Amino acid sequence: MPEQRKNVRRAAVSALRAWAKGHDYAETLVERHANRNNLSASDRALLNSILLAVLRHRRLLDHWIGLLRKGKLDHETRDILRVGICQLLILGIADHAAVNETVECARAPVRGLINAVLRRSIAARKRFATDLEELSPALRHSHPDWLYKRWRKEFGVDAADTLMAWDNQPAPTFLRVNPLKPTDLEIPGTPVGNYPGFHEIEGGIPQALLAGGHVYIQDPATTHAVSLLAPRPGETVLDACAAPGGKAALIATAMENNGHLLCTDRNEKRLPRLGENLANLGIRISATAAFDWTQPAPAEWQRRFDAILLDVPCSNTGVLRRRVDARWRLTPEQINELTQTQHRILQNALPCLAAGGRIVYSTCSLETAENEQQVQNFLREKHAFELRASHQSLPFRDNTDGAYAALIQVRP
């Protein structure tokens, strides 16, 4: 058995242990553990597939483990069983490879236990599949009960079920063609209807196009907020929560690289990547600055901006398909805390509008408290403003990431 192949399962278990300790997010862990184990491109893809699938189906995997093995398990042994059973019952990896290589990554004292439980899962495969529909929807789709109940109340039983199933599907990759850097190179993928310039791609990301700034990896749902903002050439625009720069790039494109674009982020460590992304895309009108918009804006920014995009920190419930571990970190209390943060950001950005200016408030959340209710609360306090337009993307309806955007402007 090649040593490198064995490392994939070991790397997956190590990444899960690091994740459980709160060391990092899933996508960062994939890169780190692939590099640490010197994995090839194909083994890195396998690591990514296993790790994300385990995190997506974590609750269901634990339910199956409980049926297959009575009694307590130490954390590492449970993670090894999650990795093995996920390969067998979720990913459909060949039985011999999943069992043998998962057993090999365990410590010698527990290899017999791991082997026995994995082989029991193979024997129980058909029964588990048949019994799936008898499980509660939240367990079947591996979501927290509180989140399912929240969505069931908001969207109805069928939509909530469809939404959870959506979250468990691997997210497709979309690229946006950058008109600021035209190229004669062939653009791969399939054009996305109703989203000009977007292509859905399969397989590897086109590195030459990406490195040259000719394309940018971005979901079509990100366009709605910028479309409502409608930035124009010559304007002075603020993207208040800009990193890593996808929406800022759309703003600069709409401005035809003419005007001034200030991109801020509260985390100073994210600014170098933000600046590099914008420069690579050929954006010449941008500047970056670190700023926490829960604080009052500096005097020099007040009454300065014709248009402001507030893509505020949110629960990410519209993008759980991509941020696969967010469902396990989120709590109802955190949503309440986020709404307070969002409110402060709105209040602090308001003095920065120039006369006749406009704000677009946006999230990648599905929660009414973070979206419509947040905007209505703002408008009740600020009678001089009105809601001009809004857009809500719902995965179960629109087949895109979930997102919300609202255009707010002074009443005429």
Could you describe the 3D structure shown?
- It is a single chain.
- The protein is of the alpha/beta class and 412 residues long.
- The protein is 48% helix and 16% strand.
- The chain is built from 19 helices and eleven strands.
- The strands form two sheets. It has a seven-stranded mixed beta sheet with strand order 7-6-5-8-9-11-10, sandwiched between helices. The chain has a four-stranded antiparallel beta sheet with strand order 2-3-1-4.
- The longest helix has 18 residues, at 3-20.
Fold topology:
Blueprint: H1 3-20, H2 26-36, H3 41-56, H4 58-68, H5 75-91, H6 95-104, H7 111-123, H8 125-131, H9 137-140, H10 145-155, H11 157-167, E1 173-177, E2 190-191, E3 198-201, H12 207-211, E4 215-217, H13 223-229, E5 236-239, H14 246-254, E6 260-265, H15 271-280, E7 286-290, E8 305-311, H16 326-329, H17 332-349, E9 353-363, H18 372-381, E10 385-393, H19 395-398, E11 403-410
Parallel strand pairs: 5-6, 5-8, 6-7, 8-9
Antiparallel strand pairs: 1-3, 1-4, 2-3, 9-11, 10-11
Helix pairs in contact: 1-2, 1-3, 1-5, 2-3, 3-5, 4-5, 5-6, 5-7, 6-7, 10-11
